[in-house]
Amino acid sequence: LQNFWTFWVTSPPGKPKLTSCRSPEKETFTCWWEPGSDGGLPTTYALYYRKENSDAVYECPDYHTAGENSCFFNKNDTSIWVNYNITVVATNALGSNFSDPVDVDVVYIVQPHTPENVTVTVMEDKDGPFLRVSWEPPRKADTRSGWITLIYELRVKLEGEEEWEEHRAGQQKMFNIFSLRSGGMYLVQVRCKPDHGFWSEWSSTTYIKVPDYFPRETSVWILIAVFSAFIFFILTWILNLKSNSVKHCLLPPVPGPKIKGFDKQLLKNGRSEEVFSALVVPGFPPTTSSDCEDLLVEYLEVYTPEEQELILEEGKDLQEGCLKSKGSPSDSDSGRGSCDSHTLLMEKCGEGEGKEEKHQERAQKGKRQQKHQTGWEEGDVSHTREDVLSPDMSEGRVKTWPSVFSPLPQYSSRPLDHQGSLETARQLCLSDSLFPPPSTSSHLSYNAKEGLALGSGQQEFYLGKKQTHPSNPQSQPRWHLQAHSDFNISSMDRKQAASGLQLPGFRSTEYVEVQRVNQEDMVILQPLFSSSCQRDGHLQIGQGEDYSKVKGVDSGNMLLLQREVEVKREEEDGDRYSCDIQDRVTESCYTTSTAASSQVTGKPTSCAGTAMPVQEEMVLAANGYVDAATMLL
Amino acid sequence: MPENFRSVSAVWVGLVCLLFYSRLVRVGAAPICTNGQAGCHILSLADLFDRVIQHSARMHGISSDLHSEFEQYFFPSKNHIGRVNRICHTSTILTPNGKENAQRLAREELTEVILKLLVAWRDPLWHFQQSIAHHHDFNNFSSNKALEMSDMVHELRKGVEKVAEKMQMLGIISNSVNSLTSPEALIPSDRAEWRLMKDYVLLYCFRRDSNKVQNYLKILKCRIIPQHEC
Lengths: 633, 230
What we know:
The complex is a heterodimer.
Chain A: H1 2-8, E1 17-22, E2 29-34, E3 44-51, E4 57-59, E5 70-73, E6 83-91, E7 96-98, E8 102-105, E9 116-125, E10 128-136, E11 150-158, E12 165-170, E13 174-177, E14 185-194, E15 206-209, H2 216-241, H3 243-250, H4 264-269, H5 272-279, H6 290-295, E16 302-303, E17 309-310, H7 316-322, H8 342-349, H9 356-384, E18 397-398, H10 418-428, E19 444-446, E20 463-464, E21 482-483, E22 511-517, E23 523-528, E24 548-553, E25 558-563, E26 592-596, E27 599-600, E28 630-631
Parallel strand pairs in A: 19-21
Antiparallel strand pairs in A: 1-2, 2-5, 3-4, 3-6, 6-7, 6-8, 9-10, 10-13, 11-12, 11-14, 14-15, 16-17, 18-20, 19-28, 22-23, 24-25, 25-26, 26-27
Chain B: H1 2-27, H2 45-74, H3 78-82, H4 99-104, H5 107-135, H6 140-170, H7 192-224
Helix pairs in contact in B: 2-6, 2-7, 5-6, 5-7
């Protein structure tokens, strides 16, 4: 059937086409053509050629050597530098068809075979291994006689990569490849080209494996890395050793609050109620007198003409009677150190109070008095300082221990007249009525005599004093306790205030300290303010706990007083007090007052700095309190 | 300190210039000594051969460029060229058409053929370069190439003559090589269409002849100095 159809659709052959002619060595050449359609009939092809400038037509000498549809010209038929005009003819039964002629000059159609004997070897160098590739020209190309000049090209790539790396080798038959990857598998191929011609095919791939080696550059880097690590470790170790000092240097420790009963943890938790409730010491007001004994060792010996020894013991009643009422619960300590806290003072001195009710009672009283105090304080402010206003009036109280001193064991030699001391204590306690408001210049004189009889049993004098600021000491009201034989309690004298004695019904206790003894043998007491820490050397009143304690009266009619170091603050410049009362060095000053005849003289002792001359007979307690019997301004 | 910097840089520049100059002087082409004059840098025969072969290679490259340029712009259709009878004026010079034929020639004969070819092309190329420069049919690049080609033929001839002299001096070849007179050039025609055709044929012919020269020189070299890159 197919033949039937072809029979009907036969036609002359299609036009053949010469595809290419190539010479491998410039001595022979081959031409290939592409047959067109055969037209359904058996078609024969013939190649004819003409040489340059000649009309003679020759047919292809060899149709078979080069394969199908090819014509091979051997050496005898090949002329170099001669132009061939080649044509292919397709012929079938119906006709023939000529292809387009092609001009060929053998010189320009040279395409050699691939290079042969491609060998790759790994060679060693001081910089590392490298590849040496060597090859030979294709067998038929005669480069030895100079007939053909071949230039070579090779390409390399790592196994698995896509991109080849090509290198021109020129006419040399050997090439070196450097910068190899350690342990890599390389593929190498070579090809060649005559100086005027076509490139050959790539040779078959040669595989070569590079052995593992250690590049020199990496070793240097490793050395550097090891060295740096070593130094780093040494630095870390040193830093670790000196971590404390480094920490100190970078992050200086932040002073924390030194409030007794203050729990930082609670504050961090954020519950203020618990924090403040924790401040409330359960054992406060102290019910036992034992603590107070530790805190207060004050002796005030007052020598009377009758040789009445007033050794005031610290007793329960005494404590109660003379305890100041710190009653203000809302005593804010802002701006003050912990030493300034009234609470602390209360803690230390309030042991003798014993009963909480008393304390509370006093607290209430204290509250009541506050208004008075306020007025008094304000008046005080107007007189004394400009910026007096402190938020808490209660801090301005002058706390004077009326005469709460517990006899120390050392003083056992002293016969203590309890009863007498009690009375004396009472007497020493400054009653409210006796003391005028601070605004007025009031003199407080302490009358040691019975005439003192300041009032009913418990007399508490509350001198509402503003918390003193380190302002000019001159403006500070001075409280002098003038100790006469007849201890007159006069009004407190303030500098600019002159008013009559008015003793508000204070119930608070006051603290005075012996300031000095004037010429008339008067023990000048200085009120002791609750603010314990005196920032400035000048401020005396209210600066901390200046107080003098009457230690006792010795046989030589000496009034033994104990005084705090801070007493002489005015003489000291910027001395700082240790705010912690308990930490106070037993460096309290003490004054001994020699009682001459019927007078009690007191020698001021200077308490300078922290070093205190201590008399052996005097046991100096941390806190000394002197009953502000007589206050002189 | 700008003054210091300037002086230092001047010194540096001077040093660099001195270095370059010295290098140039050293690498510069030493004159080829005739009859072994003293003080010249005598080139070896191998070096001479290398020089002339490089020269001929360059010459052939330029001629190929010009030919393909000409063919591309002026004769796009190959059929048109095919009908033209390309008759080179050097066809009268007998040149070997194959390897065996070339190897069969003696060295002197081969040298003579080379020289004949080079001599034959001196005048036509000069004319060709003149016509290109005057008729503005080509761009500057082509006219420069034509000029260079013309000069190169001249230089190459001199170089080959030198090689022949050296060989004769060395006794490699006999003294039968003579300076040759150039054959008659093509008759110049002033007709426009012929002029273009003439130029094309000229370029075609010269490209082939320069290839012949290069090849013959290589054969000669590898026959005389086989160890040197053969």
